[in-house]
């Protein structure tokens, strides 16, 4: 549902709302995880509940933003156009690669989490932290990817080749910079990112 709403926002040339939803989602995830684990002593269950609750709250926020800004579009739906087979085929043809990529990501996250759970609470907790670190980096890079999708569609539709090339160049440069910066941070801090020392316990 979040992917769908963020896709709608970006398709409407609105990159602000996905940014707000993503920031809120991650802040809530951090706050709730810390509170449940250390405040309520819930251990691994705290991670699960924190992620679950923060995700649903972010979804509610996204839905609220959608209704606030785009509610009027509900009045203009024409069912015959909405289920037009030819246009649906064209839509999926244009978005095929990103659609496959998204399905692969969802499967990978679900598979990784399920297999981690099979190996016990400790492995699940550690891998959840690793996955969150990866998500932080991916959000940074995806921000530029989303901007590129929106801007390229806009300039391609306007047949403005100079701005199209400029958008591709600058988005690629910034995305690459964020990726390199994230890699350097993880490489420099190494295992210390994952180590929590409480009276010599890790």
Brief description of this entry?
The protein is mostly helical and 202 residues long. It has eight helices and no strands. The chain is globular.
What does this structure look like?
Helix 1 (2-11) runs parallel beside helix 3 (44-70), helix 6 (96-118) runs antiparallel to helix 7 and helix 7 (121-157) runs antiparallel to helix 8 (161-189). The chain contains eight helices and no strands. 81% of the residues lie in helices and 0% in strands. The chain has 202 residues and is mostly helical. The mean pLDDT is 81.
Name its key features:
202 residues; mainly alpha; 8 helices; 81% helix; globular
Give the topology, please:
Elements: H1 2-11, H2 16-39, H3 44-70, H4 79-82, H5 85-94, H6 96-118, H7 121-157, H8 161-189
Helix pairs in contact: 1-3, 2-3, 6-7, 7-8
